[in-house]
Amino acid sequence: MQIRNPDVTKQNILMAAEGEFASYGLFGARVNAIAERAKANKRMIYHYYGSKEGLYETVLEYNFKKVVQLGSPILLAEGDLEEAIRNIIRRYYIFLKENPNFVKIIAWEQVYSSLQRDKIVFGTLKNAFRQVTEFYKRGCKQGIFTRDVNLPQLLISTHAMCLTSFTQQEILLKIDPTNTLEKRLSHICEVVIRAIAEPSLNYC
Questions:
Q1: Domain ranges of the chain
Q2: The dihedral of CA 112, 115, 120, 122: what is its sign?
């Protein structure tokens, strides 16, 4: 008789759910389909995650925790602050490129906002935003960043520019065939640097 490893089963369900939610969103995803993808008993999904909504919340939390880990070491380290910004944006951009399911789930959330997203975003990203704020204040004290930036708006804009690079990639290429992902990344970095940098420094 084959003995199942609970941790492996939970991970298989989580990955299967990520794919199902990416394809159909929270409201279109089916527990039966997730069980089939995971090759798991449907009852195990409810045993480990309580409900489809509970499983969706876990998928969001799993991904947003990875997002937070991308920037934390850079934000807390000493060094060139401008290069730190570029590195954080680059890491997030590459994360989106390597995690298309996350991109699709966030795209669904832009259409059908869920309570689970609000809970996870404000809970998981709370400490990350505090780190970003301290990083920004450090730059202001050093005279590198302007004090006129609306930081939450800049973060939202940066996220939107990065996400659009993948959700609207075909359209962007039709507008300009040279609009490669690498070119978009460079443009996003420059936009953010110009928005946050002290004008007298005249970044080019």
A1: 60-201
A2: positive
Q: How far apart are CA 128 and CA 126, in angstroms?
A: 5
The whole-angstrom separation of Cα 16 and Cα 154 is 34
DSSP secondary structure, 34-81, as one string: HHHHHT--HHHHHHHHSSHHHHHHHHHHHHHHHHHHHHHHHHHS-S-H
Which tens digit of pLDDT belongs to each residue from 3-42?
567 889 999 999 999 999 999 999 999 999 999 999 999 9
pTM over 0.90: no
Closest CA to 61 of 121, 6, 113, 101: 121
Size (the chain), residues = 204
**pLDDT tens for residues 112-128?**
777 777 777 777 778 88
**Cα separation, 188 vs 127, whole angstroms:** 24
Query: CB-hemisphere CA count at 13 Å for 129?
Result: 14
φ, ψ dihedrals at 59, nearest 5°: -60, -45
List all residues 6 or more positions away from 195 whose beta carbon is below 8 Å from its beta carbon. Answer: 149, 154, 157
Structure tokens at 29: 């995803």
Q: Crossing angle of helices 52-76/100-111, nearest 10°?
A: 110
Confirm or reject CATH 1.10.357.10 for domain 60-201, answering yes or no: yes
